[in-house]
Amino acid sequence: MTYSIEARDLRLDYRGSPALRGLDFRLAGGGIYGLIGRNGSGKTSLLSLVASLMKPTSGTLLVDGEDPFENPRTMPDVCLVQDRVKDSGDEMWKVGGYLRTAAALRPHWDQEYADRLVDLFELPQRKRLSSLSLGKRSALNIVIGLASRAPVTIFDEAYVGLDAPSRYAFYDEVLSDYMAHPRTVIMSSHLVEEVDSLFEEVLILDEGRLLAHEDTDDLRSRGVSLTGPTRAVDDLRPGLTVLNEQVLGGTTSITVYGDLDEDTLSHARAAGVEAGPVRLQDLFVHLTRKDRR
Amino acid sequence: MFDDRSPIYQQIADKIKNDVLSGELPADAQVMSTNQYAAFYRINPATAAKAFRQLIDEGVLYKKRGIGMFVSGEARPVLLAQRRERFFREVVDVMLAEARVLGISLDDVVRHIETGRGTQK
Amino acid sequence: MTTTTRRRPALTVTRLVAPAMLWISALYFAIVIVVFAVIGYVALVHGEGTDEPTSHAELLANSSPRFFLGSLAIIVTSTLLAHYLPMGVTRHQLFWAGTTLILGGAAAAAAVISGLFLVEWFVLDGTSIPITYRTPHLFDSSAQVGVIFLEHLVALAAFMALGWLIGSVFARYGGWGGLGLLLPCLLLGLLPEALLGVGWVGQSYGALGIEPLPMAASVPLGTAVVAVMLLLNHRLMRDMPLRRPTS
Description:
The structure holds 3 protein chains of 3 kinds.
Chain A: E1 5-14, E2 17-27, E3 32-37, H1 43-50, E4 58-63, E5 78-81, H2 95-105, H3 111-120, H4 134-147, E6 152-156, H5 164-180, E7 184-188, H6 192-195, E8 201-206, E9 209-215, H7 216-222, E10 223-229, H8 230-236, E11 241-248, E12 251-257, H9 262-270, E13 274-277, H10 280-287
Parallel strand pairs in A: 3-7, 3-8, 5-6, 6-7
Antiparallel strand pairs in A: 1-2, 1-4, 8-9, 10-12, 10-13, 11-12
Chain B: H1 8-22, E1 30-31, H2 34-41, H3 45-57, E2 61-64, E3 68-71, H4 75-102, H5 106-120
Antiparallel strand pairs in B: 1-3, 2-3
Helix pairs in contact in B: 1-3, 2-3
Chain C: H1 4-7, H2 9-46, H3 56-62, H4 64-74, H5 76-84, H6 91-125, H7 145-196, H8 199-208, H9 215-238
Helix pairs in contact in C: 2-3, 2-4, 2-6, 3-6, 4-7, 5-6, 6-7, 6-9, 7-9
């Protein structure tokens, strides 16, 4: 089961200031979507709206074609895993009880899978949530997110406190369980280079606005670094967005964002310009740099 | 694992082509499924699927419904022809252009290659 | 795969929260019952000849459980929202879970209290000591279990609904807003007891010369005020955001 997610001029004011300033996008559903943005860019605000933790100030949000807020059909089918390593009731819950609660409330819960994940992440069933280490607390949230098999599963910086091996175990589980049980998965992350190959599409948020929403490969191929004689590099500039620029003697290196056709590129190569790849992470950093805003 | 410039699906397609060229994947051999590829390389299955779609379009692979994807019989000769052409365009032509810039005559280049071949034997 | 409990999230949440509430309340009642039993025993043995009212069940029931259960109810909104909203339960369903917990809790406590009155009546019935009360009540004998239950049910439900309402108001309007709305909430919460004309409020009626309403009017009216408080809770919870830091 997969749900689509659609936003039209979606706005949210949070504590008197705008957190989302009019978002328009549509996720067809049944894919792994990457949501990237700096701190305070509105990622968590957007995801909280999808999970109906808050109500939009204005605009439209649709999950599977319906307003998700207080929607008894869609709410149990949206599972938001947050980067909460501490929560208000952590002293009250034991790991086992917490998992049983999720099992009772999530319609598509798979207990066998949950047991397998508990073993994988070595979660102590009898411990209280408050006594778990940072990594184990995150792992518990992740187990719930995966085993819920919710048609919309969201991981919002869910890896906090996980060491690299556990993070990769998490990515592998997301991928293999998604393939076995297709659903709409949204992952927000700072560690772009670790996860970008998982994303079918990427959404970049900046200051509450949608900066880009593209097929990951398309987005990646739009970023090019051009290094060569300053004059030759300058000839290439028209029509391109220059994200970054470095000059060393007569050599200039620019990072550009835009469509560069093969012809232009081979001309440039002939003129001594080297075209190189730009990692998605760098593209993201340059696109959302403060002085570009 | 993947360089970031060319799309990942392109890199996967190239990798499979290389395996076909080197003979590691002979004609009618079954290739891994989209999902196996995705899990192995930790990539989105849609990306892997794109690579396979391209390879099917190019006639490198063919699909048996419900079973999987296989290397087509003409894959290797076609790829070899493509690569040979590309070799001249992307390696030899570029080398000659560089030689011209450095003032190395074509004869010098040919002589060098021939003596090189001599030492190799 | 889908079971009936999963289709009824309100009931599931009630079932999950009730044990904790029951444990805390049971512990509380065990303590106060022991304390008041000791006081009652001491008064029985040494207090002969004084004209102190004799019902210790009344002494126990008149205020302490209302305040205790009322305070317990303050955390209902924040607890339910914080824990169960992220698990996909709607606020509307959480409201019904809260209502079930409040009314169920009030009924259970009223039953325990009625039982205590009855026990006291059994103990004192054979003695020469008549059972007397400090404040007016809807009942005039400790054996009127039904009326005792009804009076305490309404009073306890009122205090628990009040506690819940205060919790919701603070969750919704923050510290200062909550303080500002505290007085109207308190007045509303005390209204059922005033309508019934029982407890300390009822006692002042005598001094003021006010005639209490007949039971046939006061009980439905008191119940209606409880319902109003529950409704206000629903309105407050209906679109309450679960505030979490943005990133």
